[in-house]
TrEMBL record:
GO terms for molecular function: ABC-type ferric iron transporter activity; ATP binding; ATP hydrolysis activity. SMART domains: AAA. The lineage of its organism: Bacteria, Pseudomonadati, Pseudomonadota, Gammaproteobacteria, Chromatiales. Residues 20-252 form the ABC transporter domain. PANTHER family: PUTRESCINE TRANSPORT ATP-BINDING PROTEIN POTG (PTHR42781:SF5), SPERMIDINE/PUTRESCINE IMPORT ATP-BINDING PROTEIN POTA (PTHR42781). This is Fe(3+) ions import ATP-binding protein FbpC. It is an enzyme of class 3 (hydrolase). GO terms for cellular component: ATP-binding cassette (ABC) transporter complex. It comes from Granulosicoccus antarcticus IMCC3135. GO terms for biological process: quaternary ammonium group transport. The gene is fbpC. It comes from the Bacteria.
Length: 368
């Protein structure tokens, strides 16, 4: 029947829309809830990142996707196929996901070429060689094809571990803090490189990290996790500028929270005076709130009548991050170009530049 055929095709197309889909996943270990109602999805070729503090449940979530941990409830699908719910659980081998671990786990007695070819099964010798060569080219490692892991730099080993996991074309690649042994600057650089490689090969990936700059550098979508819950699933810009709750606002980027209260439509009163702008939440007049003020919301302006005193400063090359104290004792952060060079104790003029006001209702219901 033509109608039925169309319906079936539509269902298949819809199911294939997401390469990875988690629907209301819960994980309990020894009677303790570790993952609490997590849902998110990735389209083919998307890179997702689970970001959060130590112990929040990132690795448990990754292990659940990989098939090393069973969910207590919820549904998990990979490439349109249901791989886990509370009753069924496909094994890691059946899911065919790729994994890149913190310690890279390269085989020390195998050459780079053999390491990369290791996971490729069911292909002819010619097809395997072709795929290995393609991946070695992708990461510019052809010249090292016959080298052993101990003859490579840390960054080169990283690239080999990555292409070894990518070699069998896994439906999803999982990366568990793969850059954690590197210093901060190198981590961000590696994250950019890995993103480029994954994108060129069209791989769908999920990476776990506690480093937000790494997450910003690699991911299309970032999930901020806290106490087993996914607080926000968004792009980096939205997490920074429109955090959904106070935890995300505090965890992502830098900033201070100013106490205040709502007045009328789009107007609030804070320790810095009356501020007008589009509010992130529609709260009744008189509600006690906290206003998020980022360092880039405070402009250095010598003409401004509002003066603040420098209490600390971090030189960051292109700019300074100043910690300032207002006459009423309010603490602020200000990002200023580094040629605005003010020592601790000096005063300079500042201007608040906010149009979208990120506010949260205060829970303690009192000014501090
Ligand atoms: N097998 C287990 N048995 C008991 N508790 C566990 C087990 N695995 C994880 N947990 C607990 O679950 C919580 C989340 O752990 P998980 O390793 O997922 O966090 P994480 O965010 O990856 O942390 P980190 O960044 O430190 O690696 C922790 O409190 C941990 O002690």
């Amino acid at each position: 029947m033509p109608g039925r055929t169309f319906c079936q095709a539509w269902v298949i197309i819809r199911a294939m829309e997401n390469q990875l889909e988690l629907e209301h996943i819960y994980v309990d270990i020894d009677g303790t809830r570790i993952i609490d109602d997590v849902s998110f999805s990735l389209k083919p070729g998307d890179i997702g990142c689970l970001l959060g503090p130590s112990g929040c449940g990132k690795t448990t979530l990754l292990r659940t996707i990989g098939g090393f941990q069973a969910p207590s409830a919820g549904k998990l699908s990979i490439a349109g196929e249901l791989v886990a719910n509370s009753e069924t659980q496909a094994s890691p081998e059946q899911r065919r996901v790729g994994m890149v671990f913190q310690d890279l786990a390269l085989f020390p007695h195998m050459t780079v070429r053999k390491n990369v070819a290791f996971g490729i099964n069911g292909r002819t010798r010619k097809e395997t060689d072709q795929r290995v060569n393609e991946l070695l080219d992708l990461v510019s490692m052809q010249d090292y094809a016959n080298a052993y892991p101990h003859q490579l730099s840390g960054g080169q080993q990283q690239r080999v571990a990555l292409i070894r996991a990518m070699a069998p074309r896994p439906p999803v690649l999982l990366l568990d803090e793969p850059f954690s042994s590197q210093d901060t600057e190198r981590r961000v650089q590696l994250a950019h490189e890995v993103r480029e490689i994954l994108k060129r090969d069209g791989i769908t990936a999920v990476l776990v990290t506690h480093d937000q700059f790494e997450a910003f550098a690699i991911a299309d979508h970032i999930g901020v996790v806290s106490e087993g819950r996914l607080r926000q699933w968004d792009d980096a810009y939205s997490l920074y500028h429109t955090p959904s709750d106070r935890f995300v606002a505090d965890f992502i980027g830098e900033g201070v929270f100013l106490c205040g209260n709502t007045l009328e439509d789009n107007v609030i009163q804070t320790e810095l005076g009356i501020i007008q702008g589009e509010l992130s939440e529609d709260l009744p007049s008189g509600t006690l709130i906290e206003l998020l003020v980022r360092p880039d919301d405070i402009l250095h302006d010598d003409q401004s009548p509002n003066k603040a005193t420098v209490v600390a400063r971090d030189f960051r090359g292109a700019d300074h991050l100043y910690t300032l104290r207002m006459p009423g004792n309010t603490r602020l952060l200000c990002l200023a170009p580094s040629h605005h060079n003010h020592p601790v104790g000096e005063e300079f003029g500042i201007r608040l530049q906010l149009d979208h006001l990120v506010i949260f209702e205060r829970q303690d219901n009192a000014f501090s």
